[in-house]
Amino acid sequence: MKITKQYLHKIHLDFLKSALCSNGHHISTSKIITWLEEQHNEVKVEINKIQFAKLKHWTFDSETKNLRHESGSFFSIDGISIKTSHGQSAYWEQPIINQPEIGYLGFIVKKIGGVLHFLVQAKVEPGNVNFVQLSPTLQATRSNYEQAHKGKKPLYLEYFKKATSEQILLDQLQSEQGSRFLRKRNRNIIIKIDDEIPIYDNFTWLTLAQLKQLMQQENLVNMDTRTVISGIPYGNYDPE
Which of 50, 70, 74, 49 lies closest to 60 in space, CA to CA? Predict the structure, then answer.
């Protein structure tokens, strides 16, 4: 498909309409707070700090001394030393996460009532202060979706893997937090569907305006959601 100026204008306009629609056609913004609380109450999470030696399937490599998974997947914890002319410190050492994989951070969007709605996930992550936060439809590293953990594939993965050029509204490679990850990048992607798809219990549809309203409250919208929507284009004013 040839990407024309008119086609891009339509995409930008659809995003803009969603960013201005504070009353979602699927669920109200006020009810989202209640829905998130319900999701939180349904999840049982127990987190305990343990010694590295007690971790299953994780060991310190005999040569590099880095902490790594026995499969060679996921990531390793490496040590680095930094010399720089930037900032107040000219030299320091630190551990860093080395994950040379490009993961998916993606939204499925669909027009509901003529307005683009984003399929968001109430996702549990052990590092969250409140466990459950709104995340993209798909948030997965290659190790996750290739099932290195021997678990299930992420929901909705097939829609992203089979997306056509006409469906892709945003597709960018963006770096992960450089202070914690070594040269890590993610594929930030938004795809549009027209057909009905199954909506699972911990997923719901929100407009872009609703997401931005929820971002004003602490610990509701996770960082990956914020990263993806930060790349959304709204077009330029052209008097001609």
Answer: 70
Three-state DSSP state, 117? strand
pLDDT by residue (tens digit) across 45-69?
888 999 999 999 999 999 999 999 9
| Structure tokens that stand for 73 in this block | 């997947």
- Predicted pLDDT at 170: 96
**Are the C-beta atoms of 135 and 123 separated by less than 8 Å?**
yes
Tokens of residue 5, six digits = 């100026």
DSSP 11-28: HHHHHHHHHH--S-SSS-
Residue 221 one-letter amino acid: V
78 neighbors 182 (Cβ within 8 angstroms): yes
- Amino acid, single-letter form, for residue 78: D
Q: Write down how long the chain is.
A: 240
- DSSP summary character for residue 54: G
